[in-house]
Amino acid sequence: MNRWMERAGRWFEGLLNLLIALSLAGMSALVFLNVVLRYFFDSGITWSEEMSRFLFVWMVFLGAIAALKERMHLAVDVVFKRLSPGWKKFFAVISHSLVLYVLWLVFDGSWKMTWLNMASKAPATGVSLGFVYGVGVVTSLAMAVIVILRLFRILFGGSGESDFSLSEGSADTD
Amino acid sequence: GCGGPSAGGAKTIKVANYFADDHPQNVALREKFKPMVEAKTDLRVQIYGNSQLGAEKEFYDGVRNGTIEMGIPGMIMQADIPKMGIPELPFIFKDLDHANKVLKGPLGEELTADLEREHGVKALAWSANGMRMFSSNKPLRRMGDFRGFRLRMPNIPNYIAFGKALGANVTPMPISEVFTALEQGVVDGQDNPIATLRASGWYEVQSYVLESNHMFSPNLYIINSGFWNRLSPREQEVIAEAAKESAAYEWDLLKKSIEEDKKFLKDQGIRFIVPDKRFRAAMEKAAEPIYQQFYREHPETKDLIERIRRTSP
Amino acid sequence: MLWVFLVALFAALAAGVPVAFALMLCSVALMVSMNMLDSQIVAQNLINGANNFALMAIPFFILAGELMNRGGMSKRIVQFAMTLVGHVRGGLGYVVIIASVLFAGLSGSAVADTAALGAILIPMMVERGYDKKVPTAIVSSAGIIAPIIPPSIPMILFGVVSGVSITQLFMGGIVPGLLIAIGLMLVWTYMSRRETAELPPRKSVKEILIATKEAGWALLMPVIIIGGLRGGVFTPTEAGVIAVFYALFVGMFVYRNIGPRQLYDALIRSAKTTSVVMFVASAAIVSAWMITVANVPQEMTELLNPLIDSPLLLLLFINLLLLAVGMVMDLTPTILILTPVLMPIVKAAGIDPVYFGIIMVINLCIGLITPPVGTVLYVGCGISRISIGELVKGLWPFMLVEIAILLLLVFFPQIVTVPLEWLT
Ligand code: NA
Ligand code: NA
């Protein structure tokens, strides 16, 4: 069971990596091509702005799933890291539950927005706007799976303290 | 201090739009719609201009799903309901009065007939953003001047098709980036009513306005259907009336403000160019294929379009 | 409503909830207290928060920085600075500051700058006999110049949230960034006045020319970005993508350090870093929406109303507030949370929004090196394996001079606004 899950996790990570890399490469190429076309050929691709934005949205949220898995999301741990192990466990359960609640809202809201926009087409690309809001459904589900598995480990597994925090806030973003 | 919109448990109507606070749309909302509704009902009205509740698409969706009660969008819904693109076809209206006459009458109701069924929002009144004109950093005096002209337009197929038909190099771009793009020379010009040119400060980085009046930009007072249906008949009556009066007042304000805006822009050094007969005819001719294309894609609209064009101004 | 928002935010943060989720939670708290809870408000604003062309400049500048680093540009910049000032007393300290300024023209993040230069320069200085905390302090305090001189990720975020021109923010950061560099050099001159270590000989003109040529590709980059923005060749987002392709070209064909594998890794890393920033930024759009609906900015304006007639007092007060917040919060979330709350009062007091944005970014950049919470501080400690307390002992003179320069800019806005007028 554990080995199978580990393998699924690795496969999932590889897929996420591939998708976010392709999205970033795609949006870079589109925006660059448009600058080149404008300055050297006095023309442009009208759908470039829109398409690159959609790739960006997908890249951001798929990358956010990967970042959650790797505990990269920004957090303020001044208080948390000074707590005793017992309190840490207590707050870990609370914070994981709060995050799950937010993910439920994101799921429910994106689901409704996706259906509301299914028939709406983006003006330049003709892509259904359900495709844009659909990213919220995918993200909230994937994140919920990660958080639920961690919550189980905190409650029932013989996990160490390192599993308690949702993130170490270690991404070099500032 | 909890002086927020929910105080006292009274129902609050949030009205979202993308106009600056001193634009006729917001003046009319403040001076007519809000006082009328608040005087005659227990409802409260809170106006959010300046895209505070999101860009046009966002607050339109907000009114659709009921998180915002009312909004004054443009014709953003035309992507789903092609009929709503009709009032924005190039040169369909001769001027503001023509547009006002058509939209206030039965043709205006015919245009919005599918809105409630398709999107769950109810149309209350037509108002006006204005007649669109080109602003530019070099003079546009004849068709040839559009060649190689980098024109910013909103990302709407009919607009882009028209810009291309004129011969311009159309760059679709969100409105939030227009100032920087004009300032930097990433684009040479844009098209909007001159009230927008003034309110957004773009005139600081533009030199000419071509009085092309090539398109009419309408706005629509809309309200979420679910919210509407939960109101009492009395409340519905008051809101419908207030919307009509507010829209009519806005139309007057806008007409008056055009001359004022023009004077202001001239004082700021903007030079206005009135297209001569030949230029105007050439632009109208360039728009004809847009109509043919529109008829091909939405044959059911042809009859309505022709009836609008036949209405005398 | 202001208190509902703040209490919910800090309670969630203290419980260990990541900032993005905490922002959504405090929006939920506002919705509940206004009896308008609706999941669509969360989802719609969250997703549309990322659906923004201007914000695409962030992944582009991060990717460009990543490619340059992997392409070997940081090494060449350090070499170049070495040939210029390596031979004077305390030369390596100046090398750090000069290299940081040059690197700031390529990178929009203080953490990236500190990590890249620290990895090269700290071991070099330790080898020359400096105590670890000295080079770490210089690298960290000079690292915060990166987001002040363009490109700058925090300025992009500020511009998008406040609607202020990103190009103008970029241009306005140049002079303050250089001023900070000069301030740091003065402190270092004083600190290294008694140094007696043997110095390497002055480099010959020929050696300087060779190093310049080697670093030329890196030095050209800020020229392209700043020149392109000023000359109206492209928007900030497009400048970012030009930087990407330029760095890719140099890394692949000139320095030949980047192959498909390195490119793929750089893409993944940049995308993830972007996601971390953007996830907070998108969540901040949710809370900004609720803040607006709940009239929180008006409450803030009323609270600060006594100061509105004196822009100077207001600015001083806001700066004190930001320095305090910057001690415990990091740059990105603070900009995203406080900009929509502060902007209305700043405008009402007649303070130039571009100038305010620059001041806010500089202030919060200093927060990156103030204890107890500071990402740049952590990176410095991580590289040198010293404690925060030890680093702060070496750091405080530099930090104080940076705060002094910030105050100088508050009292004399002309230092920012006059060159800005000339640059745009
Ligand atoms: Na920089
Ligand atoms: Na700090």
Automatic annotation (TrEMBL), chain A:
Compartment(s): Cell inner membrane
Occurrences of domain Tripartite ATP-independent periplasmic transporters DctQ component (ranges): 27-155
GO biological process: C4-dicarboxylate transport
Any one GO molecular function term: transmembrane transporter activity
Protein keywords: Cell inner membrane, Cell membrane, Membrane, Transmembrane, Transmembrane helix, Transport
Membrane-spanning ranges: 12-41, 53-69, 90-107, 127-152
Pfam families hit by this protein: DctQ
Topology term for the membrane: Multi-pass membrane protein
GO CC aspect terms: plasma membrane
UniProt keyword annotation of Ion transport present: no
Domain of life, per lineage: Bacteria
Protein family per UniProt: Belongs to the TRAP transporter small permease family.
Protein name: TRAP-type C4-dicarboxylate transport system permease small subunit
Organism: Planifilum fimeticola
Automatic annotation (TrEMBL), chain C:
GO MF term (any one): transmembrane transporter activity
Gene Ontology CC terms: plasma membrane
Main location: membrane
InterPro entries (UniProt xref): DctM (IPR010656), TRAP_DctM (IPR004681)
Subcellular compartments: Cell inner membrane
UniProtKB keywords: Cell inner membrane, Cell membrane, Membrane, Transmembrane, Transmembrane helix
Membrane topology of this protein: Multi-pass membrane protein
Top-level taxon of the source organism: Bacteria
TRAP C4-dicarboxylate transport system permease DctM subunit domain: residues covered: 6-415
Membrane-crossing residue ranges in chain numbering: 46-65, 77-103, 109-126, 138-160, 166-188, 208-227, 239-255, 276-294, 314-342, 354-374, 394-412
UniProt keyword Membrane, yes or no: yes
PANTHER family attached to this UniProt entry: 2,3-DIKETO-L-GULONATE TRAP TRANSPORTER LARGE PERMEASE PROTEIN YIAN, SIALIC ACID TRAP TRANSPORTER PERMEASE PROTEIN SIAT-RELATED
The protein, known as: Tripartite ATP-independent transporter DctM subunit
